[in-house]
Design goal:
Blueprint lengths: L2 H18 L2 E6 L4 H11 L10 E7 L7 H4 L2 H12 L2 E3 L11 E4 L7 H9 L5 E4 L6 H14 L3 E4 L17 E7 L15 H11 L3 E8 L3 E8 L4 E7 L6 E6 L3 E5 L7 H13 L6 H19 L5 E2 L7
Helix pairs in contact: 2-4, 5-6, 6-9, 7-9
């Protein structure tokens, strides 16, 4: 082999090795079952639903002592990550930076997301932000602003976007109704963001962006939000407390419908979208759509406070 061929072969071998290497992912917040579920899909090469291309290698526990679901689970999930999946636990978000190629902001509590995102953005790596993106509409806008200023790719999504609802989209639909669990958490100012975001994401999976106004009626056991889109379509989100099923109905011309009363979902398609995002740095869900969802929930909450009057969505800046 000539020197030239040797050098070329060595270069191609290096490129192929680089391309084949798994991306290293770091977790912020070990207080949700998502961290162990996502890690299993990524790190267990023998699993039938394994997704290659990335592995979770490090994590920062985080946690919110005043949120019971966080305080009760943060240590247990951290222990499972460390002992079962050999994930390195670190003492700060800053310590994740040199260890990872991308970050999963998983804290179950949306309140610290803005502060945690600012620290994660300093790493210069793409960030997936699990639901809820934030506990207030203002914090959601601030996250997007920080990302723009620091040129950090990000996206946020519910796993319900990748459920059967994704198969129901039809350009001829005249309206739709989705239903989902709607429990709330007392520390979250934007109440629907805690769990109702799943239902809102389902509606936006069907309709996309373009909602102009929202009205919401509420009782002890349910919230019903109706959004009016620019093209005149109406979309309804029915949230049941404490918990209920996921489902949807899409209305089509000639009195036809597409009805999915008990919708199943899996984390696997979402994890696949996360890996592709980490590889391409292109959000799987446009940031503008995610921000409009939070404007929708903000308007819905204001409507409730005003007795169900329709409230216009606030401008998100189109980013």
């Amino acid at each position: 082999m000539t020197l030239t061929k040797f050098l070329v072969a060595g270069f191609l071998l290096g490129v192929n090795t680089l391309m084949a290497a798994d991306l290293r992912l770091g977790i912020i917040g070990t207080d949700t079952s998502h961290v162990t579920a996502f890690t299993k899909v990524l790190n267990d090469g023998t699993a039938p639903d394994h997704i290659g291309g990335a592995k979770v290698v490090a994590a920062f526990k985080g946690g919110s002592p005043d949120v019971e679901q966080s305080a009760k689970r943060v240590d247990g999930y951290a222990k499972e990550l460390q002992e079962k999946w050999s994930v390195k636990m670190v003492a700060s978000i800053g310590e994740l930076c040199p260890l990872v190629d991308g970050i999963l902001l998983e804290s179950i509590d949306g309140r610290p997301h803005l502060a945690q995102f600012k620290q994660a953005a300093a790493c210069g790596k793409p960030v997936f932000i699990d639901k809820p993106l934030a506990s207030t509409f203002d914090d959601a806008l601030a996250i997007a602003r920080v990302a723009r200023e620091m040129n950090i790719p990000w996206f946020s999504s519910s796993s319900l976007r990748y459920s059967e609802v994704a198969q129901m989209g039809n350009p001829q639909m005249t309206g739709a109704m989705v239903w989902a669990p709607g429990p709330t958490e007392p520390h979250h100012q934007l109440e629907l963001s805690w769990y109702g975001v799943h239902g809102v994401e389902m509606l936006y999976t069907l309709f996309g962006a373009g909602c102009e106004e929202v009205s919401l009626m509420s009782s002890e056991k349910e919230d019903v939000a109706t959004g009016k889109w620019k093209d005149g379509r109406l979309g309804v989100v029915h949230l049941e407390r404490p918990y209920g099923k996921y489902g949807a109905i899409v209305f089509l011309p000639e009195q036809k419908i597409d009805f999915r009363p008990d919708m199943k979902f899996s984390y696997v398609p979402l994890v696949k979208a996360i890996v592709e995002f980490m590889q391409t740095r292109t959000p799987a869900v446009p940031n503008s759509v995610t921000l409009e969802m939070y404007a929708f929930m903000d308007a819905a909450q204001k409507s409730r406070a005003q007795g169900g009057r329709a409230v216009k969505l606030l401008d998100t800046g189109g980013k």
